[in-house]
Amino acid sequence: xxxxxxxxxxxxxxxxxxxxxxxxxxxxxxxxxxxxxxxxxxxxxxxxxxxxxxxxxxxxxxxxxxxxxxxxxxxxxxxxxxxxxxxxxxxxxxxxxxxxxxxxxxxxxxxxxxxxxxxxxxxxxxxxxxxxxxx
Length: 135
Description:
With 135 residues, the protein is mainly α. The chain has helices at residues 6-21, 29-45, 52-66, 72-90, 99-124. The protein is globular, with a radius of gyration of 15 Å. The termini are far apart.
């Protein structure tokens, strides 16, 4: 079951969020794929059935980035879905020994989800990122 302390998870979510905020194109492809694989493993290790769609989306994202033809619209759609799933998962963070860490993790996951949705919407060339105002 989920054995990773929320303190560790919150720090890892914050680090991933920082990288995404600097811009997806600033992350080297090999590093992005490694990060995706790391997150997929962590999600699967929780053994939570409600998080399996996130692991599946991470697997899809990996596959979309390693093929001969990288399809930005497909990747954008996966990022939007992954963002929505991540935001939804933020509401169901496992209890920790410290309440502040729970709140940090929830806020971090919501922020990460929002960034993924917006980046996916921009990459896919649509307004699926959740913003109704033009950029």
